[in-house]
Amino acid sequence: MKFANIIVDISHEKLDRPFGYIIPKELEDKISIGTQIVIPFGKGNREITGYVIEITDKPSFDINKMKYIIRANEGAATVEKQLIELAWWIKKEYSCTMNQALKTVIPVKKKIKNIQKKTITLNISEEEAEEKILKYKKSNAKAKVRLLQELKDIKHMSKELVVDKLNISPSTLKALESTGDILIEIENSYRNPVNFNNLERYDIILNEQQKAVADSIKKTMDYKKSEKANVHLIYGITGSGKTEVYMDIIDKTIHDGKQAIVLIPEIALTYQTVKRFTRRFKDKVSIINSKLSAGEKYDQFERAKRGEISIIIGPRSALFTPFENLGLIVIDEEHEGAYKSENVPKYHAREVAAKLCNITGATLVLGSATPSLESYFNAQTGKYKLHRLTSREKGKLAQVSVVDMRKELKNDNKSMFSMELKQLINDRLEKKQQTMLFINRRGYAGFVSCRECGEAVKCPHCDVTLKAHNNGKMVCHYCGYEEPIPRLCPKCGSKYIAGFGIGTQKVETMIKKEFPQAKVLRMDFDTTSRKGGHEEILSAFANHQADILVGTQMIVKGHDFPDVTLVGILAADMSLYASDYTAAEKTFQLLTQAAGRAGRGKEKGQVVIQTYSPDNYSIESAAKQDYEEFYQEELAYRQLMQYPPVAAMTEILIQSEDEELLDRFTDALTKYINKLKEAKFKQLMIIGPAKPPVAKINDVYRRMIYLKSLDKEKLIRMSDYIQELINTSQKVKGITLQFNVRE
Ligand code: ADP
Ligand code: ZN
Ligand code: ZN
């Protein structure tokens, strides 16, 4: 007799363990590890689904009390064994239920049928066709004549063409098939979201530095499973050829009969990346992302399983592509926030990728011009191998100047553009070169506030101020709530109420006012929310339909516009005011990446950073494009404050719609954690409970407790205890808890 251990598809902490069931004899060949099954559950024997994670010969308890699996769910996708192993790790590392972890590693849950391609072929000779045509003409069978005339010349046609272009009905096709005039052939095929035809060949010879980096990484690739993952960090300035190095390593991976996963941080970068990879690797490349249909997604995973493709390009969920022989994972722009999941489990792609490399023997290659503090720290301490690319093949690093906006005011320049930036914009307009202006806020202005009483208008559902837009409305950037900007202050009745600060819309308006001859495009959340919005704006700018592109961080990432010779960063300090400990790092990364957009072609680029805090180290180092200097300063700060990467940190987010209940629960939980600390984890640091910077979102109240420790294992164990408390406590109705491991 065979038994299965099953994780049920209910994400409840109390059901977070495997349940033992008997596999009926007749189902034995239909059920394996990873199969989704249907079982009777609980007292009422309700039918629910679950995944088989283990099969054994030994019952897990009294065999007379065990129930039988009802059936295998044939419509569901199965989970690969190695992904189940990964799910166990995710569960433990990120303190979530196994069901949540399994859901994470199965991005496509349903099987979806292949598409069927039908081809119509002429089944008779040309002469016979001529005769038939004459015959059908006589009997006035116009559709038959149309089709045979077409097929006489080209022999084969797809059924779609026959139906769409020639307007032939299925019954006509059947009739012609039964008289033997044509053949209808059916072929099963996979959907393929990538279709580039006739791309030019791709021939690049790596320069010496690139070759040295690629070779030294290739030497370490032995595809052997190991406790210690083989991880490399390529720290290379923007445009230094990291992508060329990735492709060289992928080439070896494929030669060795292995496959590669390539992660990119932004869906908007898919097009240019896939095009580049397709040039080199032809139809071995595919993509996976949220813009694909369910059928397209399912088919890419099937193609991966069958070895039809060797490279998949996508966001963090592409990690779960079921390749048989994974040999390499590349994470481009590894510092990007997009690699961290916003939903439970809040996993980081970098860490999950490293674990997947342990399990499969694959190699992990991270690349960035501004590595995350974590990765650079790991490279310094020897956990990762560090490689440098220090020069650009095309173009030169831009010249950067920092403008102190306080001085502009003193010199009577009230414009949002400094004198220097204005003069440079004019110069570029004359030379017909392009400019990018970056501002880290969408909308027209910042918050709406009253100059007499100081009232700032808040969202009724969230603990944030509403932001002014140029359609006369104020919008909540968290929940989307909007209302008209009032003419009078709702508190004191003053008419001096208006939006303060600047956003992308205002920059666009002011550019049009100060430079009426300039053609301007704007790229932000509001202009790209339509499908294809990104590509439209980017290609319009690439085709010189505009002189100036105004945008949020969307315009900063990875895009390659050779004719941009000026980048203006309008309020460099904005992200410095964020309350997270990573604010300086984010600022440095944004500024450096933005600066990297200038001067990618023949002309030298120039960057103007406008700021009210020119002495801040993140702005100073970004202006010098000196990563090392920034890293040293930032690391000293993290050391002093015991923040990651020096210490491990877990944030516990506690949420409820009932604020009173929330505070009571949070206090009790804090007491419990403090008691545990005294008993078992003396070195652990506990901060809070505290209100997070945004203490209410969408009518749900939020509180935080922060745990820090120099020993990560201790943090994970503490999280386990807290989970257990939740599992056994009755008092948690109406409360949700989320763990966020910062890394
Ligand atoms: P990164 O990924 O580091 O930003 P890329 O790989 O995109 O850099 O390279 C920037 C540009 O320089 C690309 O157009 C690329 O084709 C070109 N390039 C890089 N290395 C070479 C080389 N060895 N020979 C010719 N062109 C190169
Ligand atoms: Zn007022
Ligand atoms: Zn809101």
From TrEMBL:
Textual note on the cofactor: Binds 2 zinc ions per subunit.
Coiled coil residues, start to end: none
Cofactor names: Zn(2+)
Residues given in the record as Zn(2+) 1 binding sites: C450, C453, C489, C492
Domain Helicase C-terminal stretches: 484-649
InterPro entries: Helicase/UvrB_N, Helicase_ATP-bd, Helicase_C-like, P-loop_NTPase, PriA, PriA_3primeBD, PriA_3primeBD_sf, PriA_C
UniProt keyword annotations, A-Z: ATP-binding, DNA replication, DNA-binding, Helicase, Hydrolase, Isomerase, Metal-binding, Nucleotide-binding, Primosome, Zinc
Catalysis: reaction(s): ATP + H2O = ADP + phosphate + H(+); Couples ATP hydrolysis with the unwinding of duplex DNA by translocating in the 3'-5' direction
Record: residues binding Zn(2+) 2: C459, C462, C476, C479
Enzyme class: isomerase
Residue stretches making up the Helicase ATP-binding domain: 223-389
Enzyme Commission designation: 5.6.2.4
Highest taxon of source: Bacteria
Family: Belongs to the helicase family. PriA subfamily.
Subunit structure: Component of the replication restart primosome.
Function: Initiates the restart of stalled replication forks, which reloads the replicative helicase on sites other than the origin of replication. Recognizes and binds to abandoned replication forks and remodels them to uncover a helicase loading site. Promotes assembly of the primosome at these replication forks.
Protein name: Replication restart protein PriA
